[in-house]
Amino acid sequence: MLKAKTIDPAALELLKKAATDGIETVWDRYEAQQPQCGFGTLGICCRHCLQGPCRIDPFGNGPKAGICGTTADVIVARNLLRQVAGGAAAHVDHAYEAVEALELAAEDKINYSIAGEDKLRQIATALGLETPSKDTKALALEVVRVAYADMSNHSRQPLQWLLANAPKERIAVWQSLGILPRNPDREIREAMHQTTMGMDADPVNLVLATAKQGLVDGYAGLKLATDMQDILFGIPSPVVTEANLGVLKSDSVNLIVHGHVPLLSEKIVYWAKKLSAEAEAVGAQSIHVAGICCSGNEVLMRQGIPLATNFLAQELAIVTGAVDVMVVDVQCIMPSLAQVASCYHTELITTMPIVKIPGATHIPFTLENADETAQTIVRKAIAAYKKRDPRKVRIPDQRTTIMAGFSVEAITAALAQLNPQQPLKPLVDNIANGNIFGVVATVGCNNVKVTQDSFHVEMVKELVRNNILVAATGCSAHALAKFGLMNSEGTERFAGDNLKSVLTALGHAAGLGAPLPPVLHMGSCVDNSRIGDLVTAIARYLGVDTAALPVAASAPEPQHEKALSIGTWAVTMGLTTHLGVVPPVLGSKSVTELLTQGLTEVIGGKFYVETDPILAAQGLIADIRAKRKALGLTI
Ligand code: CUV
């Protein structure tokens, strides 16, 4: 029997409409791909030179080596290194855009303000820059100079962003392994070089290089991007809104922002408010912005914009017939959106020079023309609204209240209500006494191989029932938001008694008058850096290595190379990192063993693959229990 496509009631409803409307979706194309290539699934095909493609017989009867003599172990390790480098490249490129934006903003060359001065001073202090007397813009330029120095560093010096922010114990481990990264461009280039024909044939060396790419991702990608974005747009603080496709409005202009970099979407949110009179003039109530994927998470965290849906249902958003414009920037954008949009009045708008989709309207976004571009896009949405066909509209009546905006600063501020001198103490005390048994970060995507959202939701329910506090980002956060795990009632319904008592006390101390949610929404994929910062702060407070903490990570439904690079970074932080989808490594027993066991000895963390959500939760709890035991905490 085929597994269900989704557990999201809105998506289920729209899948029926898609069938009636003759729309092909990601699930149809997945079915058409069956059976998927066994060699690819195991990671044992190589296309790195023109003598190939080569593939290894997994049963040992056919070829045991590629034409050049490369083994399955090497093919698997090389493929993984390229994937992780691909993920890191996406995040570093994203971070670079944000650095440029901060530079131009500080030079008054573009119309972006510096809303997060507190963050700027915090980062400058961490980098060892003199902060007190400096003017904001001058200090911003100094911070930018450090970022550019990291990007263009020709010496063998490791990334300053990493040295300033990573835990000391970890830096020592990475240094001893020779994996402290330099200039990220150089490291990514090196990974491409190391994996081309006739290069590295040592699987252990390749896996260590993969770990280095994880560090590139963690510090020159995630951390740098979040820092720059917080300086530009402000540090998130708690917001309350709604999630799921029911947030679309039948009587308003609906504009969806989709992608990852908030430089344009922030402007769209601004101009959507400004131009509402123009929408009223055509008979709409307002201009309503909602988000998909991580651009959605970014404007949710800082502006309280509702979440429309996550990765796997992006096509179905258009199938509502109620989306006037979907504007995309970079990453996780299905090219099929153009085909789906062509069946409705929806205008799909691409904006970046490296993301063009035939059938979409391309409106180039630059930092210099950001306001004009945003206005043009908002006006396109108003114009499209007039063409909306009410007979084709179906907005599922599904929306859930969510609280988001849990930056480390916001969490610390809430904890400071209990202990102003040592804000982390109440959290750490509750972890020590077992009220909070441990912390799991759930991150990453949807994957069509998994019933949409089911793994996130089932696993997290089991975790919070067992008094594990969950922090979520990315499409995992969307999934948990849709299913009521990000509001106070979620704590009443799903949290174990001990966790419930802590969250209730914290919620009241923070002035909510209700418990904090059992899952804290910490932002987009690059905001996994926030989770890293929190873990680093707790470890520092306790004076222990992050690898010793009762903390684990999980990507229950990963699809993107970025999920692999983020997961690799989590492993380098010493965390057990669960994947709910098997990555293409099983073709090599030794590489698989290295990733899931061998690495622990040298780096503290490891990958843990389990495709059943309840077993995965139990496995993570067992891992946390072992760490508690080693720390001498109650178990
Ligand atoms: Ni960046 S990477 S599907 S949007 S989380 Fe969502 Fe998050 Fe994966 Fe993409």
From TrEMBL:
Q: Does the keyword Oxidoreductase apply?
A: yes
**Which Pfam families does this one have?**
Prismane
Residues annotated as binding [4Fe-4S] cluster 2:
46, 49, 54, 68
UniProt keyword list: 4Fe-4S, Iron, Iron-sulfur, Metal-binding, Nickel, Oxidoreductase
Give the domain of life: Bacteria
Question: What cofactors does this protein use?
Answer: [4Fe-4S] cluster
Report if keyword Transcription regulation is assigned.
Answer: no
InterPro entries annotated for this entry? CO_DH_a-bundle (IPR016101), CODH (IPR010047), HCP/CODH (IPR004137), Prismane-like_a/b-sand (IPR016099), Prismane-like_sf (IPR011254)
User: Tell me, which GO biological process terms does this entry list?
Assistant: generation of precursor metabolites and energy; response to hydrogen peroxide
Q: What class of enzyme is it?
A: oxidoreductase
Gene Ontology molecular function, alphabetical: 4 iron, 4 sulfur cluster binding; anaerobic carbon-monoxide dehydrogenase activity; hydroxylamine reductase activity; nickel cation binding; peroxidase activity
Q: Which residues bind [Ni-4Fe-4S] cluster?
A: 260, 294, 332, 445, 475, 525
Residue sites binding [4Fe-4S] cluster 1 per the record: 37, 45
Q: What is this protein called?
A: Carbon monoxide dehydrogenase
